[in-house]
């Protein structure tokens, strides 16, 4: 059963004559990690905003657990590129923020938040201030915060875009661990090709104007990492390199579509 389903979705910004996205159909089910890859302007953020309910489609339907998506909701946990943390609150308060908004009592929301902070490797950091964290640690707080509300799916918009190569690779590994342990399906957008090929169980390449799906691939690499294969071994394997080169070609073509 697909948790999230998009049927022939189109998007248009108010006042714009052109579509931003056209004819997007996709499904996200349990145990899937869908990555949307595409050049700048191909509509990745627009697509995520539609799924998050921040904007409504101009055509087509989006359903989550069978119900139409008509606005934002706690059933979708969103992690943004620039951490959207509250700088005057601690790590623990930030992670518990969504539950505080819902009126969950302090002891209960802090217990949930501590559990998710441990999952992202931030045990012991609960009482740090946000300004004392590195970029990678802030993104982990963002992931913990999204998980604390126990959403049906996680949506991530270029979550590691601001991190350097080494930290970025660690963040990718962390995300696969979180995906496996939390058993939450993930929808992630990126323009980084190696990241997309490594993480995705299902890779969707967007291209053209309006943005549309130019290719779909089913990939094994994230699952191989999750099953215990070391990250460098996965990323240097001949089949990984072949997949990466194939995707690179497709993205180049999408640039010119
Ligand atoms: N608020 C807006 N109003 C009007 N048009 C917009 C708005 N936001 C995006 N667009 C247009 O919609 C199209 C898709 O943009 P979008 O930001 O979704 O692409 P993207 O793939 O996420 O790009 P990037 O990788 O640069 O973030 C572009 O043509 C863009 O100019």
Automatic annotation (TrEMBL):
Keywords: ATP-binding, Cell inner membrane, Cell membrane, Membrane, Nucleotide-binding, Translocase, Transport. This is Taurine transport system ATP-binding protein. Gene3D superfamilies: P-loop containing nucleotide triphosphate hydrolases. GO terms for molecular function: ATP binding; ATP hydrolysis activity. SUPFAM superfamilies: P-loop containing nucleoside triphosphate hydrolases. It comes from the Bacteria. NCBIfam families: PRK11248.1. It comes from Pseudochelatococcus contaminans. InterPro entries: AAA+_ATPase, ABC_transporter-like_ATP-bd, ABC_transporter-like_CS, ABC_transporter_ATP-bind, P-loop_NTPase. Belongs to the ABC transporter superfamily. Residues 4-233 form the ABC transporter domain. It holds the Pfam family ABC_tran.
